[in-house]
Amino acid sequence: MIKVNENFLKLKSSYLFSEIAKRVKKFQEQNPNVSIIKMGIGDVTLPLPPACIKAMHCAIDEMADTSTFKGYGPEQGYLFLREKIAKFDFQKNNIDIEPDEIFISDGAKCDTGNFQELFSQTIKVAVPDPVYPVYVDTNVMAGRTGEFKNGQYKNLFYLSSTKQNNYLPDLPNQKVDLIYLCFPNNPTGATIDRNTLQKWVDFALENKALILFDAAYEAFIQEPNIPHSIFEIPNAKKVAVEFRSFSKTAGFTGTRCAFTVVPKECVAYTENGKPVSLHSLWLRRQSTKFNGVSYPVQRAAEAVYSPEGKTEVKQNITYYLNNAKLIKNTIQNLGFHCVGGENSPYIWIECKQNSWDFFDFLLEKAGIVCTPGEGFGKCGEGYIRLSAFNSKENVEEAMQRIKNIL
Amino acid sequence: MIKVNENFLKLKSSYLFSEIAKRVKKFQEQNPNVSIIKMGIGDVTLPLPPACIKAMHCAIDEMADTSTFKGYGPEQGYLFLREKIAKFDFQKNNIDIEPDEIFISDGAKCDTGNFQELFSQTIKVAVPDPVYPVYVDTNVMAGRTGEFKNGQYKNLFYLSSTKQNNYLPDLPNQKVDLIYLCFPNNPTGATIDRNTLQKWVDFALENKALILFDAAYEAFIQEPNIPHSIFEIPNAKKVAVEFRSFSKTAGFTGTRCAFTVVPKECVAYTENGKPVSLHSLWLRRQSTKFNGVSYPVQRAAEAVYSPEGKTEVKQNITYYLNNAKLIKNTIQNLGFHCVGGENSPYIWIECKQNSWDFFDFLLEKAGIVCTPGEGFGKCGEGYIRLSAFNSKENVEEAMQRIKNIL
């Protein structure tokens, strides 16, 4: 008898964004004349940078000619892209990352979801709360948790990020083996300074733990004391893996390209304490289960690092950050407490009521879609997330509507 | 302490195609003047069909404009593509598959690799021998096998495909729960007729087993008695999932698009025997760990179903099949036994010696790269695979070189 992986049955019945989509659909059907402004899911709205468009057209023309056609590429990604990343995202900032430590993929969601496959089922996993649901759900599917009860899964260690700790979780008061960190944070928009991040690296070194550092929002960082990479921290290469994405940086949410940095010196251990290279394991995982990213897409990603690409990306980031500023100012002037929005496209707002109720309130009274904090975990209850990924006009209209109802 | 998934350590040290690449690289370095003809890895050589190129250019222009820009698409794939697939690949042939039973992905390798995540660790898995290594390696990683010994992993059930059984494995003589079948077969090129496939479906129905049917080479089928889809077989929808790909059909190996059909009535069971919809589980898996295929790539795949696309794809398939015919005739005239090559781009050749030795012989004496059968499993020992994915000129040259040395 073919038996299911019953861990899947522990998952909460619906994935956050599907639930939001369902409620929005229902509302729109009942109110066809309301022009809904979606400030929920963090999806970009500006078109791809012209440099990327140009590079993609060129690459497609290559695919049209036998002499330049590209079949299977390297599973790890083309060297032309990995070299640009190593140079401009790391070496330029005096971070010693080599091209062969970089793995190109079709999304940070996939990579943060798949990376846990490399580890034993018995490890203790620490996740932020509120959390990007992928970190949790993929560990549930893998069987590392117990049942879901009172907003949390048994056996996971939750790193509470609250108003009290300024949305920077305390170090675990017990041994944990795998630690997910995300800065600038999704969903809160909070950032971490170098000294605090150093404490996490030290914790990992002391406990032979591993940090999975999600830096998908790195491009939004404006302040100089905020690290762009965990590898700015001394010795982090021994105990950290970093995930980055072109999705939010350059508008690739529908184009699909991301990368993961697995330093050669980063290890995990066998039961007997023998170190095993995570770089080798991830390479084996990727070459077995993945076939590389579409060639034209990798060429588009490469163009992000061209002089034109850099300028265009910067303009887009500035555009979104101006939206974020407007949202933050409006919300704060209405007397709400919030965080994020300065080095992040997200603003995390204390709504002083049940977050799904506030979600329904904003949808029904103002036609605005937010993301209810409860969907990100127990500590998200009482909060909502607003996203700056929208047109300036929509954000202005949304803020006007919010001022009218609050 | 962060502990590794020790199942990874059971994997044979190198993945087949990496080992081939290593040997070829070494030979080329030592013999820089030899023009190597690669007939090993099954990678297409003809450019993308013009219809696909055109569609991709259009889609990229959409990505350049705010009003037509596409961000996150549906994880299951765009409806425009799923509708075309349902209509032209299934409904046109009187197979009742609906668009919402189709899941678009970036590769059949990923899907055949990932699908096993839906099942319990305790299931008994049957794999062909010789086998596409992904079926085996992903189950090793998941912990469903013992150690590798004498060319096989403990606990796997191997479906021997040999000269004796005409490369069509016998039904298992014991209970198995998950059965991988691949027709037209990779690596042998053998095909299965409807009556024989019916026996497998009946076996699955009787034993509450599930068939994962890999039909990546379906487009090469020329003879009318060979099923293009397992869903041509009555009741197969209850016990089968089918994998297809644009890679070999339309030259998408570097462009990346594939799909998986999970019928709504297909189930697996809990320990207590309660049926669970695999469609729901796969949707949950994909929406958690995957973010959909690049929009321009999905538009390119859609163009495969346009009148121009169909004609162009057919021309490419004919081109490769003509190569296959030439290879098969040459090899048979030299007195070798072989199979495949008529409804498949692969020719499976009995070499009457160790297959890696014959690999080295062809490489060193003729500058030809084949795939040694041993890399596909114990039953592959004594065989090599030649691929018809090459230019006519290269295939002619390769056959001349082979005639000279054999």
UniProtKB/TrEMBL annotation, chains A, B:
Keywords (alphabetical) are: Aminotransferase, Pyridoxal phosphate, Transferase
- Report the InterPro entries cross-referenced here: Aminotransferase_I/II_large, DapL/ALD1, PyrdxlP-dep_Trfase, PyrdxlP-dep_Trfase_major, PyrdxlP-dep_Trfase_small
Q: In which pathway does it act?
A: Amino-acid biosynthesis; L-lysine biosynthesis via DAP pathway; LL-2,6-diaminopimelate from (S)-tetrahydrodipicolinate (aminotransferase route): step 1/1
Q: What is its EC number?
A: 2.6.1.83
Top EC class for this record: transferase
Indicate whether Transferase appears among the record's keywords: yes
- Give a yes or no for keyword Methyltransferase in this entry: no
Q: Which cofactor does it need?
A: pyridoxal 5'-phosphate
Give the reactions, separated by semicolons, that this protein catalyses.
(2S,6S)-2,6-diaminopimelate + 2-oxoglutarate = (S)-2,3,4,5-tetrahydrodipicolinate + L-glutamate + H2O + H(+)
For this UniProt entry, the molecular function terms from Gene Ontology, in alphabetical order, are: L,L-diaminopimelate aminotransferase activity; pyridoxal phosphate binding
Where is the Aminotransferase class I/classII large domain positioned along the sequence?
36-402
> What is a biological process (GO) this protein takes part in?
lysine biosynthetic process via diaminopimelate
Q: Which PANTHER family match?
A: AMINOTRANSFERASE
Q: Which NCBIfam families match?
A: DAPAT_plant
The molecule here is called: LL-diaminopimelate aminotransferase
The organism named in the record is Desulfonauticus submarinus
